[in-house]
Design a protein that fits this description.
This protein is an alpha+beta fold. It contains 16 helices and 13 strands. Among the domains are: about 45 residues, Rubrerythrin, domain 2 (Single Sheet), CATH 2.20.28; about 160 residues, Isoleucyl-tRNA Synthetase, Domain 1 (Orthogonal Bundle), CATH 1.10.730. Helix 2 packs across helix 5, helix 11 runs antiparallel to helix 12 and helix 12 runs antiparallel to helix 14. About 30% of the residues are buried. Bound molecules: zinc ion (2 copies). One zinc ion binds next to loops.
Length: about 475
């Protein structure tokens, strides 16, 4: 799966400093050391506990192997570790009417020993950390505080799984560390692995031990407690100097044509299928545009088609094509020299200067949707500017004014070719190829509005960047994905 996912990420132009997984020697060795140190510091202790045992399968049932009714919301298919309906984190014994998920029989309760992490010891510190962090999204803040206010309980960190990292505590030889505790430590070990690749194995400490480090965790809302409570508590327990999450970008859920994505029911589009239907940039653009930042959002084929046709094709694509074709045909491919700027020119030039600053601010706040909106606004302002200026008339009667118009419009294209890169990288690179410019050194993104493309610079032959999606294509995909028009 790791190599399949890596390949898909590449095809979607997603790049990482280190894309890894937790099944590796660096992670396993560090986790053993990490949890043993917490144990030695007295934050982990063993208790004799009742556990569900399946007599039919002849085994203790790890939490994910128990299915039952959620005691909080009544959802009938909650797992032993968490209810995916209401998000509450559970212990298997809390489930009502529990069943072994392997064979379906009702398990019995049997005594065994497990090791517990003393989470309540961190209640006050965690509460303080969350209250002081005014960047946290509303959903993360509310969920975490209510968890703490309900009273944190010690959490079992060992399991009777056959797989997993062996628990390093004396007497726990047949146990493994619960995957959720060990997985979050993967954030540290991924940076250790990266340091080793960089040739300086201590480099990770520079980030993890610096109070100025900003660590951001991109998660779905069902993962909030692991990132605002479990991970910070583990970090505090191991070494108080370790940097705590600066923010979590905990999105709400994305629905597919009004339904929950479901592998078993075939609801959704798989990444590899998606690429066979449309280029990666189309998906990237649309998925950012509907990113569930504040509430659940819905993918719909109609809205997808409308967005690609209106935003990408008619707005951005057409603008870039109109400007570059005009320069190519009427100015021999050379960016024309501007003459006097009038009010309309200055208005657009000042928006070009502001756009990167505004877009960056939203990016820092992890509001990608709003950041992208600034860029579509830049492009639609460019389109309106051309409509008002009518360079196709100016070129015949006032060629100097046409030159100024195209100079200003070319600055918009140049700015877009840099600012759009995080959103639609393949198209942004194509824009720069047509402009025949390289991404400048330094903070190219923030400076995109203040580093103009020079008059006299020669561009290459332009071509259209996007294609409209016809209705029949959408009908075809609707059939393929078993969805009906809403
Ligand atoms: Zn529930
Ligand atoms: Zn069973």
């Amino acid at each position: 799966m790791h190599s399949i996912v890596t390949d898909l990420f590449n095809k979607f132009s997603l790049s990482f400093d280190n894309y890894t997984r937790t099944h590796n020697d660096v992670h396993i060795a560090f986790c053993k050391e990490f949890f043993f140190k917490i144990y030695e510091k007295g934050y982990i202790y063993s208790i004799d506990v009742d556990q569900l045992f399946c007599e039919n399968c002849k085994r203790f049932l790890p939490d994910r192997f128990v299915i039952g009714t959620c005691p909080k919301c009544g959802y009938p298919s909650a797992r032993g570790d968490q209810c995916e309906n209401c998000g509450v984190v559970l212990e298997p014994l809390e489930l009502l009417d529990s069943k072994c998920s392997i064979c379906g029989s009702t398990p019995i309760i049997k005594k065994t020993k497990h090791w517990y992490f003393d989470l309540p010891r961190f209640s006050e510190k965690l509460k303080e950390m969350i209250l002081q962090n005014d960047r946290l999204p509303e959903n993360a803040k509310n969920f975490s505080l209510s968890w703490i206010n309900e009273g944190l309980r010690p959490r079992a960190i060992t399991r009777d799984n056959l797989w997993g990292i062996p628990a390093p505590f004396p007497g726990a030889e047949d146990k493994t560390i619960y995957v959720w505790f060990e997985a979050v430590i993967g954030y540290i070990t991924a940076t250790i692995e990266w340091s080793i690749k960089k040739g300086d194995k201590e480099l990770w400490k520079k980030y993890w031990l610096d109070s100025e480090t900003r660590s951001v965790y991109f998660i779905g809302k069902d993962n909030i407690p692991f990132h605002t409570i479990i991970l910070p508590a583990l970090l505090m327990a191991y070494d108080e100097r370790l940097t705590l999450p600066w923010n979590v970008s905990s999105t709400e859920y994305l629905m597919f044509e009004g339904q929950k994505f479901s592998k078993s029911r075939g609801i959704g589009v798989w990444l590899d299928q998606a690429l066979s239907y449309f280029p990666a940039d189309y998906w990237r653009y649309y998925l950012i545009k509907i990113r569930p930042e504040k509430s659940d959002t819905n993918f719909s084929w109609d809205d997808f088609q409308k967005t690609i046709n209106n935003d990408l094709n008619d707005n951005i694509g057409n603008f870039v094509h109109r400007v570059l074709t005009f320069i190519y045909n009427h100015f021999n491919g050379l960016i024309p020299s501007p003459h006097t700027f009038d009010e309309l020119d200055n208005e657009l030039l000042s928006f070009i200067r502001e756009a990167p600053i505004k877009a960056s601010k939203f990016m820092d706040e992890l509001r990608m949707r709003q950041s992208l909106e600034i860029l579509t606004e830049l492009s639609s302002r460019g389109n309106m500017y051309l409509t008002k200026k009518e360079p196709w008339h100016q070129i015949k009667t006032e060629p100097n004014r046409a030159a100024t118009t195209l100079y200003v419009a070319a600055q918009v294209v140049k700015c877009l070719s840099i600012l759009l890169e995080p959103f639609i990288p393949v198209s942004a690179i194509k824009m720069r190829e047509m402009l025949d410019i390289k991404i400048p050194d330094g903070d190219a993104w923030l400076n995109a509005g203040t580093t103009p493309i020079e008059a006299g610079h020669m561009i290459k032959r332009p071509y259209p960047l996007f294609k409209k999606i016809p209705d029949r294509k959408i009908e075809e995909l609707r059939n393929k994905t078993n969805t009906t028009k809403l």
